[in-house]
């Protein structure tokens, strides 16, 4: 249900605690006692794991309270902050910090930290390293982590109340930090640029055409397209794809599964004078798809269904074939259909980018409880490593390999990256980017972000080696402080990623 990649190439994965026992023991005599749990108050099994990408191994982690349909972000120091959940977990903050002693790292929980119940809320890391927590079920407000004792802990956001609909309120709103420091908030059909410092709407954008909601339970997906600092006029463009038509949730509850939305919309949100959505169609309808930014700068859309909506037993016709979207191609030539997966990934599936360029895909549980037999779409416990086309061995001659990189980057300062490539056609075909790993749940990758940095110089220093002079992101509004995967891309083919810290 939830996944987050950490800077040590380990992935924190977790579900909910109120399904009863899992098949994985906590070990070492550990058990949780939770008198508020609605399924099992004394539980010696794990509902969270730490997955080692390199070793393909995992170990159990201990959750004390219910993390169902929660949210998360990674602080600048690399600590995962997981926010809210259900039942006794809805006011809880949980943190997980990578540490040297991997056998003892575990969740640390702080009860009653949140000012309001946060269930289906969204997060965004801000330019000062704080996390803004927006919305949730019947929560038309926002707050911050960590709290500032000098400011109010809770602030109302009437826009969330205005954009509610009859099926649900606008759960898991799409959030993006804009280069001007304001917060983009998309809820159902409407979106705003929001000054969270002053609790003031700066701009309301036109509604996305069609009138159909895009947030949970419609469950479209959204990304901020890559920011390119090489351009004289830095644009921020939001893309929203798929979802279910208005009324689809109620119709699915009554046994009628309507076709998902096929449309995507792009909106340049730095254009306050004349912003307009530009619409185009995907190759097939899709709800509950995950949009993942690839190091090539393209977008993969993976997982989901062709009919119905999010919710228990409310989706049909799994969409097995991922598609890649090429943002800079001519309209009408931007989508490519890829080889289909062998496993349906419906409700409660996730997808994240790994440093090796693969996309880690996991989950799918469209049932009230875990159900492995006698159903069309059994609960899925496997992980898949999906390899985009750029990982083909045919591209090895032009694939760059990072030899050395500055590990700590300072805003607006020069740093160097040394890489090798067997067949370098032209240094003009090189770009260097940062990608922030996302916290992914319910078809939205929170904090997902790619910044193409300004390349000042590329110099050949050996037969196959090149030294580049790069300018790190100019402001924390363009790239909030923290850990990023750095990729060198040559002729459209990315290197393996290297972890760097931006501060």
From TrEMBL:
<dbReference type="Pfam" id="PF09118">
    <property type="entry name" value="GO-like_E_set"/>
</dbReference>
<dbReference type="Pfam" id="PF07250">
    <property type="entry name" value="Glyoxal_oxid_N"/>
</dbReference>
<dbReference type="InterPro" id="IPR015202">
    <property type="entry name" value="GO-like_E_set"/>
</dbReference>
<feature type="domain" description="Galactose oxidase-like Early set">
    <location>
        <begin position="399"/>
        <end position="501"/>
    </location>
</feature>
<dbReference type="InterPro" id="IPR037293">
    <property type="entry name" value="Gal_Oxidase_central_sf"/>
</dbReference>
<dbReference type="InterPro" id="IPR009880">
    <property type="entry name" value="Glyoxal_oxidase_N"/>
</dbReference>
<protein>
    <recommendedName>
        <fullName>Galactose oxidase</fullName>
    </recommendedName>
</protein>
<keyword id="KW-0732">Signal</keyword>
<dbReference type="InterPro" id="IPR011043">
    <property type="entry name" value="Gal_Oxase/kelch_b-propeller"/>
</dbReference>
<dbReference type="InterPro" id="IPR014756">
    <property type="entry name" value="Ig_E-set"/>
</dbReference>
<dbReference type="InterPro" id="IPR013783">
    <property type="entry name" value="Ig-like_fold"/>
</dbReference>
<feature type="domain" description="Glyoxal oxidase N-terminal">
    <location>
        <begin position="1"/>
        <end position="390"/>
    </location>
</feature>
């Amino acid at each position: 249900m939830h996944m987050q990649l950490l800077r040590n190439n380990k992935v924190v994965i977790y579900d909910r605690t109120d399904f009863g026992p899992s098949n994985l023991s906590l070990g070492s005599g550990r058990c949780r006692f939770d008198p508020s749990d609605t399924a099992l108050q004394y539980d010696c099994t794990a509902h969270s794991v730490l997955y080692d990408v390199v070793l393909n191994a995992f170990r159990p982690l201990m959750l004390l309270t219910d993390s169902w349909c929660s949210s998360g972000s990674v602080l600048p120091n690399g600590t995962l902050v997981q926010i809210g959940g259900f039942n006794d977990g809805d006011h809880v903050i949980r943190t997980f910090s990578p540490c040297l002693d991997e056998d003892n790292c575990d969740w640390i929980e702080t009860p009653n930290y949140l000012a309001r119940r946060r269930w289906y809320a969204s997060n965004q890391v801000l330019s000062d390293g704080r996390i803004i927590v927006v919305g949730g079920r019947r929560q038309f407000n926002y707050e911050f982590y960590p709290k500032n004792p000098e400011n109010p802990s809770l602030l109302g956001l009437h826009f969330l109340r205005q954009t509610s609909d009859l099926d649900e309120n606008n759960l898991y709103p799409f959030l993006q930090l804009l280069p001007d420091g304001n917060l983009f908030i998309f809820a159902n059909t409407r979106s705003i640029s929001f000054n969270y410092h002053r609790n003031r709407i700066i701009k309301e954008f036109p509604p996305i055409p069609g009138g159909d909601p895009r947030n949970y339970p419609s469950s479209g997906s959204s990304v901020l397209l890559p920011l390119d600092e090489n351009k004289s006029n830095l644009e921020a463009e939001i893309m929203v794809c798929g979802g279910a038509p208005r009324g689809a949730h109620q119709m699915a509850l009554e046994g009628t599964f309507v076709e998902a939305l096929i449309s995507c919309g792009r909106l340049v949100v730095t254009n306050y004078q004349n912003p307009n959505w530009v619409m185009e169609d995907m190759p097939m309808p899709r709800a509950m798809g995950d949009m993942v930014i690839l190091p090539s700068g393209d977008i993969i859309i993976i997982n989901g269904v062709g009919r119905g909506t999010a919710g228990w037993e409310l989706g049909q016709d799994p969409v097995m074939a991922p598609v890649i979207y090429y943002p800079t191609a001519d309209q009408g030539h931007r989508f490519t259909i890829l080889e289909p997966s062998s496993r349906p990934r419906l409700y409660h599936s996730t997808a994240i980018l790994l440093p090796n360029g693969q996309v880690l895909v996991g989950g799918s549980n469209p049932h009230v409880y875990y159900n492995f037999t006698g159903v069309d779409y059994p609960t899925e416990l496997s992980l898949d490593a999906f390899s985009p086309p750029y990982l083909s061995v045919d591209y090895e001659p032009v694939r760059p390999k990072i030899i050395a990189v500055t590990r700590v980057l300072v805003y607006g300062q020069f740093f160097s990256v040394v890489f090798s490539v067997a067949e370098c056609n032209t240094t003009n075909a090189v770009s260097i980017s940062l990608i922030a790993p996302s916290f992914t749940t319910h078809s939205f990758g929170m904090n997902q972000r790619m910044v193409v940095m300004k390349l000042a110089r590329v110099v050949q220093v050996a037969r196959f080696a090149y030294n580049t002079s790069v300018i790190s992101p100019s402001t924390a509004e363009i790239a909030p402080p923290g850990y990023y995967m750095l990729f060198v891309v040559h002729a459209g083919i990315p290197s393996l990623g290297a972890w760097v810290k931006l501060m």
